Fold each of these.
Amino acid sequence: MGAKLGQAIGGRTRGGDDLVEAHEINVTPFIDVMLVLLIIFMVAAPLATVDLGVDLPASAVEPQPRPDKPVFVTVKPDLSVAVGEDVIARDTLTSTLDSATNGKKDERIYLRADKAVSYGDLMEVMNLLRNAGYLKIALVGLDGRS
């Protein structure tokens, strides 16, 4: 009985050096931390998404000075594309811009579109310009200052 009492209190028997190993891990703090993290992510996840309707205003800043011969690319309401005053096919946009800019890919291209043109169609034209190597694109709008 004394050996069992020694194991229960001190973990050692009087006669030997054997230690009693505890094979139990207290997982309660781990579960508490996991539940707190779960609540944080459940609250923060809806805040991370952006579902806002945007009504963009007109620009009210001073217009930048225009270059001597700006290159305008226009997207018309019927989705045809014009460089300057000439309506062109979309597949000839690269060669037409190369001749209009004398091959200078770093020249600014002024892109304007009718209000009826959807955002997706405008982005298609911007992607054509970017794929052609023209990375300096300025969007043209009306002066909204009163």
Amino acid sequence: MAQALIFLAPGYEEVEMLTVVDLLRRAEIPIDMISITDSLEVVSSHNVTIKADKLFSEADFDEAQMIILPGGIPGTPNLLAYKPLTDKICEFAEKGKWLSAVCAAPTVYGQLGLYKGRKATCYPGQESNLGDASYTIQPVVTDGIFITSRGAGTTIEFAAAIIERLKGKETAATVLKKIIYQDTYDEESAKK
């Protein structure tokens, strides 16, 4: 059973999707890649085809603790246009379950009117689509049930924030150290 569900719509940003999946799996957090199409194979914004784990109809929303949306164009508008997903997003918000999104995808929550004055960030130029969120320019913003991030370049930090939320700060730090993330460089080891 997956703790987190990440959604693949035609035109998703593959770096944002795969980085999150990779790092959560390194942290031993069960995550399912869910296709919102009628096929497990979904084509990204840069014409990369990735096979999802499950179709939308097979996703276990009862067990999942978090919905994650990768950005990308036309991926983000395709996510917003898929009513079965937006219904589940609104249900998660009502239940106080976690909602995360990166790049243009935080605008999905904004256009659904879910932020209610919470802080959020997104890809530059998309801030007008955040609804009633208080826009802030930070790589990752965690506020209430939301984790939002700016784009492909901030996805490692975004994934770390998700890991911290689901499994704790120590696990997030361990994963970042194992992938040699910038803040974990050990000069003494490098000299040997």
Amino acid sequence: MRKKFLVQIILATAVAAFGLTGCKNKTGTGSGSKQPGAEGGVPPLGSGSDVTSTGGNGVRPEGLSGDLAHGQFAPVYFDYDSARIRPSEGPKLQAVAAYLKSNPGKLVVEGHCDERGTAEFNRALGERRALAAREELVKQGADGSRITTISYGSDRPADMGHDEAAWSKNRRCEFVVVNQ
């Protein structure tokens, strides 16, 4: 009888712990209050783009092999709930495009968001950001067939804080060179 009671207590504790940490409710005050795909200029999720979403599990976009080089380029930052490239971020994209035009290999554009909004919304917004950066790189002469996009949504924050200073660092695109 005592073993059964002990097992019930352990099971109840595990269920309670999972309930507190396993499901984070992200509600309405942030970017989740709008519907994905609301911005113009970039195709919505599921439109046949070359985005592969991994959910933060480390899987690389399909068809890419070779060594990954992170941090070679400065991230491009975005305004809250926006996939529009800021004019101030243009030089960063110009540097990436110039590199692609004079070097072999491929590039992965990673779209990221801050923690506000639902997982689905953030994944779609990260996709729109990555596609906007890719579109700008192609406009600047980079070969679009060498650029793959991926959205991590809010799964890989650059800053773990919960304020505007942290969120502004998390609304970004990063560029990963794939040396083949």
